Input
Amino acid sequence: MLASGREDNFARTNDVTWSALGTNENNSMPLGNGDMALNVWTERNGDIVLLLAKSDAWSENGQLLKLGRVRVKLTPNPFVSAVSFRQTLQLESGDIQLRSGHNTVHIWADANHPVVHLEVQTAQPVELTARSELWRTKTQHLEPKAVAEAGFFEFGNDPDGLTFDPDTVLPPRNNQVCWCHFNSRSIYPMVFEKEHLESLLAKYPDPILHRCFGVTMKGEGLVSTDSQTLKSAAAARSWRLDLYALTRQTNTPEAWQTALREEIQSVDAVKLKKAWTAHQQWWTDFWNRSWIHLTGTEQAAKVSQGYIMQRYMTACAGRGTQPVKFNGSLFTVGHDLPEGVTSSQKDWDPDYRTWGACFWNQNSRLLYWPLLATGDSDLLAPWFNMYVQALPLLKERTRQYFHHDGAACLETMYFWGLPNINDFGWNNPGVDLESEWMRYHFQGGLEVLAQMLDYFDYTQDVAFARSSLLPLADAVVTFYDQHWSRGSDGKILFAPSQSIETYQRTAVNPTPDIAGLMSTLPRLLSLPSGLASPAQREAWAKELKDLPPIPIGVTAKGKLPPGGRGDPDGTPTILPAQKYDGTKNAENPELYTVFPYGLYGVGKADLELARNTYRTRLFHMSHCWGQDGFEAALLGLTEEAKRVVTDELTFYGGQQFRWFWRKSDWTPDMDDGGSGMMTLQFMLMQCDQKRIQLLPAWPREWTADFKLHAPYQTTVEGHVEQGKVTKLKVTPSVRAKDVIVLEPAG
Output
């Protein structure tokens, strides 16, 4: 019997059930085990379709590809014309069930192994046919003008266009069907060469070349009728289809297939019943780590369901080798296009997504911040690991380009750390990026450092501090210390620079970067003794002393404030930089002082200054990378936070599974859901060092059951109704003295 906790039950109340067969990929539901994920849908003829993905399926062009599609046909079909048909996504156990009377199909991606199981039980004997459907069947070349339209942002302005290689279908063996994508070439050397780093190629092996990823499909009683099809030898009332995935760098597809056969033997050594029990336990443990469940109003219930769905989708795709892609995660869908037709925003194949394959810090970070309060360390790990693993290359890049120490973590980067060539410039003779949007956009490294410091505060994980936090801190902080000169006042003069993407080229002393250093340096200095050397602490203290002040002045909505500090006749606000020009994007860099760097907020000094800054911000933005929701919550603006979190977590997309969030960058827009999670968490609980504030921006009419994680290995659990907290449980109990319950507005 599996242990079932409160959030396991809360998850169950949000299960999704459909009562009719679907039509196409827009009627899919998401499944995943953290690395291997799939969209599952039915079609009018009763076919079951599985669109498979994997977190590390990177092509020769650095594009994250799907593994392929599998169509399962039952004959006669028990679901066509069935009045009682039900298709249910069971959140509490991470599986999908199709049911009509005594006919069931059970689909699940094993939480502990790289395999998807499809189990069929029918009242009457049926035949089963499973066929792989591949759309990358021929070599394809796009001319330069077509590349950007096809979603390959990284190859915009490429004078040579782009070539795409086909998949490989291997001969069937032992009634197993197998296919893969094998990278016989790689963009990796070209990226180094175009960015003047070819001398480093021998030191940093190519992670793309000979990468091979794909699937083997098999099932007892199924025989291969050709290289892509399995079919039952006779009708039966019970069938099982298993799909195994592997990514590995090998010399040939055949060598990859051998490795996958060994993996299959290992997976099959665990009996299915035991694997299912362990799978259920993983999901039970996951849901019991943390929960927020809202009632009280219809609006609150919808917000609650959106929160749970975002967390579920992150779990389905968030435990792989690489982080979750903000622009669609592993759940992008599409369909086969006519020969000669290229994907575009009007019509696309399953591999398509706008804004390409790079990781954009500004967007991706928002998926990961809320995982601190949910206690999802396993989902945070790929995000942190990407930056730590890239550090050696980034440090050498800095030495070669700028002749000093440290590392700059750029806004857009491949998973190995370098920016894409479109941002760098295809014929750039220098070392600064040609893209003015990204040229001096370094502050993302400071934000990842802030996340790591929070993670250490929450977990007190000394091993993590030594292996990840301190190496990143040393590299990023050193870069900021050495990259710019000191002015006549002895302070660091951050110029040339930019303030996020919004104020480019002429920005001097950008507020996000200064705030990031003002926030992280004192926290580094307060780390336990023994974690940092005396020399490091001395350098950090000096750099903190050398920082210029946060720019403060006056502003009026719709017009630029003066540069510099202070105007006694106006409303004081925080400025985006000491000096700056016109806007180029829709961001409010001055509010980075509130989030992510926490210099202002509820219970902190100068709250009205920060609130004035929020009220007079130029850009109001509730979706994608917009920060309105959690900034409002952190400033105690309850009604504003309530409005925005409702907008964020009900920003339904156009597919039947409406929590595939509406397209800002692509669908599902995962940073929108991450922002919504964070807003709701901050409305309910805010932590500052050891202080835990409950209800800092909580609507009195919303009822909540919650369990959230807090610093110093603490969990806070309770019930909120009519602005009162009951059933409060703080673990360990000694931390209860640090909890402050605030009075909700209204």
User: Anything to note?
Assistant: DSSP finds 18 helices and 31 strands in the chain. Confidence is low (pLDDT under 50) at residues 556-569. The CA atoms of residues 502 and 585 lie 4 Å apart. The first helix runs from residue 6 to 12.
